[in-house]
Write a structure and sequence with these properties.
heterodimer, A: two-stranded antiparallel sheet, 77% helix, 2% strand
């Protein structure tokens, strides 16, 4: 195991994060705060609570999850796409590093960034709710962290795959914008799927993000759309799928080596 | 004889789409030598280097670097190789120091600021160590790429067109750096399409064309072969045949009888031009004009390929 290389890539990526602090951390926090104001304050006055949870609190897991998904994907995809784009990938390919090490370092760095971001958003939300009648409380903090970590790693891995697959900036944007964003909105970030009318309840069950948000929300408040075990299985299954794809990519040199 | 530091055997590369970039390459490079791989653009120089360094997968054949198979023992092989690619690709927002230190880590070496400092100083980069790469000139970026390649103390260094688009002064500096490296025992393989560069630097030269190694020779020997020039004499009146008195000069007469070509060796002690001119005047051949030309590298490649094709006939 070339730990020096893993460390070098990881630190290099983290350094990039600090250098681009504004777009990496600050802008997602600002946009989350906006969601919070719009949905929490405006809608919150009409929907006072859902299943016994104040609406302002209820949307917190969904908001965090939404940022985790989009940011994990964009961090990781950009991290590996950029060296391909500018050509510095030559060094990575000529270095004595295995694919496991490359993935560990890139995905580890992207996931770290997402986890930090998730915690920052959580702290922001906590601050927003602190002076209200119903401050934010987390029922299962350990499980909350488990979901946070698992989601960050899984979707960073997914982003890594997109970054390798993409051969232009359009493709890099395509999946996050066209697939992940809509799925997150429909996945119950701001409501439970039981609030959906008729057939949409069934349709929503095909949205994988429902399982993520449901599980995460359970860790906060003990309420779910679907069983927690199913949520965990869904993330685990997606993680396994991503690992398989990444393994195939490196085994065949797809989009990396001629 | 010591084991070669790089040995390539029966290497083939066919890109997807069917383009065969390399055909049955066999090549051995000795430890500590400077080997120049000479060839026109598109000959397969970069493909060959890229395979040895692990950037391109070979289609067939094996390569050993420092005794290690580049596929099966890629860690051992690659950690001993440094590569300076042709393209100037750098992380624009990183500093010289960071990017060089990053390379060292990537190649599996613990950090060693003293070595990085020594490397940067040897390439006159020390005063730029805190500069972001985007602020550097092209020549300086090239030096940074060399510093990155040397950061992990490789035994083998590949320089892919190191002086393409580089000014004369920097070229001299670079040659100096290469000589110093060789003095330290590093084996250097450089590709170039400047014949002067091979002449200046190399111990041995390999010529590659259309994916095949056409010849590998000691530089001195090759330069002798390549050092031929042609003197073209435009005649005032056409000749039907080369006069008897001029038979010994190995002249060739053009079809219209208006041009004589004399081939001579610029490296020889006597070129024979002076005696030829006298003999021409004695034979009463009147000249209208004269010119000399040297075979271009492209022409030499063509000739070599033709010779080779002839040998198989």
């Amino acid at each position: 195991m070339n730990l020096y290389a893993v460390r070098a890539i990881y630190l290099f990526e983290m350094h990039r994060t600090w250098r681009t602090m504004w777009q990496s951390i600050v802008s997602p926090v600002v946009s989350t705060a906006l969601y919070f104001v719009v949905f929490g304050a405006a809608l919150g006055s009409r929907i006072s609570e859902i299943e016994g949870v104040a609406y302002g609190n209820f949307i917190v897991p969904g908001l965090i999850m939404m940022s985790l998904l989009t940011q994990s994907i964009s961090n990781a995809s950009f991290g590996i796409y950029f060296p391909k784009f500018v050509g510095t990938i030559y060094e990575l390919l000529s270095a004595p590093v295995s694919f496991v090490e490359i993935v560990l370092a890139y995905v580890g760095a992207a996931a770290t960034k997402s986890i930090i971001l998730g915690l920052v958003i959580l702290a922001t939300a906590y601050g927003f709710r602190y002076f209200t009648a119903a401050p934010l409380a987390i029922m299962h903090p350990i499980w909350m962290l488990v979901f946070l970590f698992l989601t960050s790693f899984t979707f960073s891995l997914f982003g890594f795959i997109i970054g390798i697959w993409a051969d232009g900036f359009e493709k890099l944007q395509l999946v996050p914008l066209l697939i992940v964003q809509p799925l997150t909105f429909l996945g119950g970030s701001f409501y439970t799927i039981t609030m959906l009318p008729g057939v949409w309840k069934k349709v929503a069950l095909f949205d994988p993000v429902v399982y993520l948000i449901s599980g995460f929300r359970w860790a906060f408040f003990g309420i779910t759309d679907v069983n927690v075990g199913v949520s965990l299985a869904a993330i685990g299954g997606f993680l396994a799928f991503c690992i398989f794809i990444v393994w195939r990519i490196f085994a065949t040199g797809y989009r990396l080596k001629a | 004889m010591a084991e070669p530091v790089i040995s390539v055997s029966h290497l083939d590369k066919t890109y997807r789409g069917g383009f065969q970039a390399l055909k049955d390459i066999n090549l051995e490079i000795e430890k500590g030598e400077i080997f120049a791989l000479l060839g026109p653009n598109g000959a397969g120089k970069t493909t060959l280097i890229s395979i040895i360094c692990g950037i391109v997968n070979p289609s067939q054949g094996t390569v050993k670097a420092a005794g290690f198979d580049i596929v099966k023992q890629f860690r051992q092989a690659r950690s001993r190789i440094g590569l300076v690619p042709q393209e100037l690709t750098t992380d624009a927002f990183e500093t010289v120091w960071n990017t060089t230190s990053f390379s060292r880590g990537l190649f599996g070496k613990p950090s060693n600021p003293a070595h990085i400092e020594k490397t940067l100083k040897s390439l006159s980069l020390w005063d730029k160590k805190d500069n972001q790469l985007r602020t550097l000139s092209g020549g300086m970026k090239r030096r940074v790429m060399i510093a990155k390649a040397l950061s992990h103390e490789p035994e083998i260094l590949f320089l892919d067109e190191p002086t393409a688009g580089v000014d004369v002064e920097l070229r001299r500096d670079m040659w100096e750096v290469v000589r110093q490296l060789r003095a330290d025992g590093v084996t250097i393989i450089l590709t170039t399409h400047y014949i002067e560069e091979a002449e200046e630097m190399a111990d041995r030269v390999g010529v590659i064309s259309k994916g095949e190694i056409i010849l590998v020779e000691e530089k001195a020997e090759l330069m002798h072969k390549l050092g031929k020039k042609h003197l073209k004499l435009q005649l005032a009146e056409p000749l039907r045949a080369i006069p008897e008195a001029l038979k010994d000069y190995g002249l060739t007469l053009s079809d219209n009888g208006l041009e004589l070509t004399f081939t001579y060796d610029t490296k020889a002690e006597r070129t024979g031009i002076a005696t030829l001119m006298k003999a021409l005047s004695d034979a009463g051949v009147r000249l209208k004009d004269l010119s000399t030309d040297q075979s271009s590298l492209e022409q030499i490649f063509v000739d070599l390929v033709k010779q080779r094709a002839g040998a198989f006939r």
